[in-house]
Write a structure and sequence with these properties.
about 550 residues; alpha/beta; eight-stranded parallel beta barrel; 14 helices; about 25% strand
Length: about 550
């Protein structure tokens, strides 16, 4: 009799709890306290969420209507949930490996889960401090609020800032707030961007977001992003034929960067004679300036063309000095339109095919157009890229093949700085550029890396996710820390593993240290041994080319 009574009592208690939970959901009573009763026990929180019918889901996330409180958004890939305004809707899941994004009419919320490892000197403080490095530029960024606090056992850093509204970004979201919630092994970053001051929003409440946060074991794995080829370009006939020859039919073809070329080709010709190979591609760098010098582009394009070379034309913004205003914002305000239109017109008037590489290595903090310098916001680069792309379209540059080119590793290697977050879209990219250097061992913590060590992972990644052609836009090996001739020999022998790489461009030059000493010698002609290795292997490419033709 006692056993039966106990079962009845347990049944009544379970029924009561279930009914209470359903009533709470129906009445819209705050889910905040329910979600945080056991901050460090994800398993204790999950049944509460599961007991409430889901309102939206695509396998990567779930949204639960919490009545007057808003919505409970949970990320099944990264394993967290949070209470958000009911106006927010999921707008991006294709990059779920790196972030989720939600938006409403005025705001965008990007959420990142960044693993940390204090034992390996990668602490939460390192992540947050480095991520906010852009705030050193006080000309463009106005720090409005920063606070370190503790909520529900979590350390939390809240940072709020703004910049001037960019005139050429439609509905620019120039007011920012970043909430970094720190757990034992991760930092969960909530980056809010708004068209208006966040304080003016009726549902603007950092505390509610932080208090509602909870984590759980991930239950989903996202599919790989796909970069699709779009072949609807209105290229001129010569450019179509060039693209088909070098990026479709493709025997690997070689190019070079040589600083004095094409203005002075004499030294490059000496090298070409020594290795008995004439490079087909020539890398040229240009920088956006206040005034466009007539012939700035045309003269170099024509000089290269007269030597039967195709130019990989690289355009960048100047290096950003600490505390200096960032040209990226000025470009998006239209202040450099005269230069950009003149640059695009000279390129278009040249008429022959040009590989155009705009602001390469954008995921490297040494580039002023990196998100590291623009509000921790890679969307700014995408807006910049598309703005310049439109200018080239406006002048009918039908000879331009667009090359999108991240660095092989992101610096900083944070989720918000992953190279794929800088991808402007399939319609804006014709060729994927790969860049990776064996930098040698001149600097502390640098290691000697073989060609395969560098290119196996990036080739595997982009060959898997991209339908677009691949090329190595620039690469080289230092001679400090290993045998450079052996490295080059291994490089040539390794290329058969990368059949989709159509063009490879050797970077001949050096990097200097802060005292002006050569730190990374990347020269092709440091010794006769190097030249002999190039000559031996490039002869094979020349022979294959003769057989094809």
């Amino acid at each position: 009799m006692k056993i039966v009574s106990r079962k009845i009592i347990i049944f009544i208690i379970i029924a009561f709890i279930t009914a209470a939970l359903l009533l709470l959901g129906a009445w819209g009573i705050s889910a905040t306290n329910l979600l945080n009763k056991s901050n460090n026990d994800p398993a204790a929180k999950t049944p509460i969420i599961d007991s409430i019918p889901k309102d939206a889901s695509d396998g990567y996330y779930r949204i639960i209507n919490s009545g007057n409180e808003g919505i409970i958004f949970s990320n099944q890939v990264d394993g967290y949930g949070v209470l958000l305004p009911d106006t927010m809707r999921v707008t991006e899941t294709r990059l779920a490996d790196y972030r989720m994004a939600l938006e409403d009419d005025l705001r965008r919320l990007e959420i990142y889960k960044q693993p940390i490892s204090p034992k390996e000197d990668f602490s939460a403080e390192t992540y947050v401090t480095y991520s906010n490095g852009f705030l050193q530029n006080t000309v463009d960024h106005k720090l409005e609020f920063q606070q370190k606090t503790k909520v529900n056992g979590y350390k939390v850093v809240i940072t709020q800032w703004s910049r001037n509204k960019a005139l050429n970004i439609e509905n620019d979201k120039n007011h920012y707030a970043c909430i970094d919630i720190i757990t034992k092994d991760n930092v969960y970053t909530f980056l809010i961007k708004s068209q208006t001051r966040l304080e003016d929003s009726s549902d603007y409440d950092y505390k509610k977001l932080v208090e509602s946060f909870y984590s759980f074991a991930p239950t989903a794995t996202p599919a790989s992003i796909k970069l699709s080829q779009t072949e609807t370009k209105a290229w001129n006939a010569e450019t179509v034929a060039f693209y088909d020859k070098y990026f479709k039919e493709g025997q690997l073809t070689w190019g070079i960067f040589y600083n004095s070329a094409p203005k002075d080709m004499s030294e490059l010709k000496v090298i070409e004679a020594a290795i008995d190979y004439k490079f087909k591609f020539l890398l040229i760098y240009k920088h956006i300036q206040e005034v466009f010098p007539v012939g700035y582009v045309r003269n170099d394009l024509e000089a290269a063309y007269s030597d039967d070379k195709i130019v990989e034309l690289t355009l960048q913004t100047p290096t950003l000095d600490e505390g200096e205003a960032n040209m990226v914002y000025d470009i998006l305000d239209g202040k450099y339109d005269h230069f950009l239109y003149a640059f695009a017109k000279e390129t278009a008037q040249f008429g022959h095919p040009v590989l155009f590489r705009f602001c390469n290595e954008m995921n490297g903090d040494w580039c002023s157009y990196s998100a590291y310098h623009t509000s921790r916001d890679p969307e700014m680069f995408k807006e910049l890229y598309k703005y310049v792309y439109k200018i080239f379209n406006d002048v009918n540059a039908d000879n331009v093949i667009w090359v999108w080119n991240p660095n092989e590793r992101s610096f900083p290697d944070f989720k918000w700085n992953n190279e794929l977050l800088y991808y402007p879209g399939d319609a804006y990219v014709d060729v994927i550029g790969l860049t990776g250097y064996n930098t040698g061992t001149y600097y502390k913590d640098e290691v000697w890396r073989s060609f395969s060590k560098i290119y196996d992972p990036i080739y595997e990644k982009f060959a898997h996710i991209s339908e677009k052609p691949l090329m190595i836009t620039e690469f080289s090996s230092s001679s400090v820390g290993g045998n450079k001739a052996e490295w080059i020999n291994d490089m040539f022998l390794s290329f058969n593993k990368y059949p989709r790489i159509n063009v490879a461009i050797w970077w001949h030059g050096c990097d200097l240290d802060s005292r002006g000493n050569v730190a990374r010698p990347y020269f092709i002609n440091e010794s006769t041994d190097l030249l002999d290795v190039f000559k031996e292997h490039l002869k094979k490419y020349a022979q294959i080319k003769e057989l094809i033709h």
